[in-house]
Amino acid sequence: VQLVESGGGLAQPGGSLRLSCAASGFTFSTYDMGWFRQAPGKEREFVATISSSGGMTYYANSVKGRFTISRDNPKNTLYLQMNVLRPEDTALYYCAAGPYGTNDYRYHYWGQGTQVTVSS
User: Fold this and answer.
1) What is the 3-class SS of 38-56, one letter each residue?
2) Which stretches of the chain score pLDDT less than 70?
3) Which of 47, 74, 107, 108 has the most CB atoms less than 10 A away?
4) In what order do the strands lie in the sheet with 17-24?
């Protein structure tokens, strides 16, 4: 099983980034997926989750209306479109495979993370 995040980097406040997560080694289309993040000195926190079909999504209040989670099952890829970025969005972003929800301990597989830094 492998989850490989990409697309992180440096963005200015108000800017945008699109994260990708390439999945392999399991049947991606049967798994709900999620994005989590961890800022320095803070606990890992939930960002967004999407059902296996893509028909249901749920967001943390802190990103609702700015971030969009989506997936392309034929390409085994998960996305996170991040708009109107804020300095407080700075964190290491992880994708994870597991049951639809906000609790990280319920997710089975994790990527290594991609760094997002929002700064002027």
Assistant:
1) ECCCCCCEEEEEECCCCCC
2) none
3) 47
4) 2-6, 17-24, 77-82, 67-72
